[in-house]
Specification:
This protein has 329 residues and is an alpha/beta fold. The chain is built from ten helices and 13 strands. The protein has a five-stranded mixed sheet, sandwiched between helices. Strands 8-13-12-11 form a four-stranded mixed sheet, sandwiched between helices. β4, α4 and β5 form a beta-alpha-beta unit.
Length: 329
């Protein structure tokens, strides 16, 4: 019996219509378009207004199912990676499943910040590899505008809203997820977290007044950790699988900062032509960046392409996946 691997057989992204440009931000905080672009690579980001995170997941899933010609009842499992759930409970994955008619699937949320999609893919792949399930949907989506202080120029320039969904199915031809490395380090909490809203500091009039429900980030510390760990884990997965810069077709890096992306690619010895970059269009959509990259570049992917996905996020969390692309677009 041939080994079963979990292959990505479909991808669909979604971003809301409203665009917030750097010029718009110049009117809101003390910043400039040139400053933002030179330090992050971001030119604009999409913003979801008056709707919850689940609505973006629903859009991505419905379009993915239509694209694949699959009924929602065929889905066995739904994993939603997000740090901006509709509610503390129930899980946003449950809500998306209900709204899309995926009534035969069990579903849950996964919180690993910007590494959430990678964690979700690895988790979903296990259920395919065991033979337990045939169709697993992994969603990475975040409405970061809901936890960003638009008077804080250190964070409001970075984040946007959006995400995407993939379909994982069994493969016996050697395509799909072939290896992964995942890490976490809770001591990184002090550098990047949302102070209030959980059991450690429940919501109150005081926490709202003190703006403790917004993202807190120490930029320099996070940048330093991201550069090191994203590059390290990407190089390690290359070594573990005897991959060279020549036989890697694509790096799919988390879109947090163009300088972090460039540093990771340089450590891997990759030319810019092999790196998926769309941070200029969407900013950092947290768990949404990797599926949005795959969606944007889907038409350029070929069956058998060697692809490395790499991410770093709050927590700290980080990791990399090596996969072979399973289809021609």
């Amino acid at each position: 019996m041939k080994k079963i691997t979990a292959a990505i057989t479909g991808i669909q992204g979604y971003v809301p219509d409203k665009i917030l440009t750097n010029k718009d931000l110049e009117k809101m905080v003390d910043t400039t378009d040139e400053w933002i672009v030179s330090r992050t690579g971001i030119k604009q980001r999409h913003i979801l207004e008056n709707r919850p995170t689940s609505d973006m997941g629903v859009e991505a899933v419905n379009r993915l199912l239509a694209k694949k010609g699959i009924s929602p009842e065929e889905i066995d499992l739904v994993i939603c990676a997000t740090v901006t759930p509709d509610h503390p409970f129930p899980a946003t994955a449950n809500i998306i499943s209900d709204k899309t008619g995926m009534t035969n699937a069990w579903s849950f949320d996964l919180n690993a910040a910007c590494s959430g999609f990678i964690y979700g893919v690895v988790t979903g792949a296990q259920f395919i590899e065991t033979g337990k399930y045939k169709k697993v949907i992994v969603i990475g989506v975040d409405k970061m505008s809901s936890i960003i202080d638009y008077e804080d120029r250190t964070t409001c320039i970075i984040f946007g809203d959006g995400g995407g969904a993939i379909l994982l199915e069994p493969n016996e031809e050697g395509y799909g997820v072939l290896d992964s490395i995942l890490h976490s380090d809770g001591s990184g909490k002090q550098h990047l977290h949302q102070p209030a809203g959980g059991s450690a500091l429940p919501a109150s009039a005081e926490t709202v007044a003190q703006k403790l429900h917004f993202v807190y980030q120490e930029g320099k510390s996070v940048f330093k950790a991201a550069v090191k760990n994203m590059a390290d884990v990407s190089v390690q997965i290359m070594k573990n699988n005897n991959l060279s810069a020549e036989n890697i077709d694509w790096l799919v890096p988390h879109q947090a900062n163009l300088r972090i992306i460039d540093a990771t690619a340089e450590r891997m010895g990759l030319s810019k032509e092999k790196v998926m970059i769309n941070i200029h269009k969407y900013g950092n959509t947290t768990a949404g960046t990797l599926p949005l990259c795959l969606w944007d570049f889907e038409s350029q992917l070929k069956k058998g392409d060697n692809i490395v996905l790499s991410a770093f996020g709050g927590g700290f969390t980080w990791g990399a996946i090596y996969l072979k692309w399973a289809y021609n677009s």
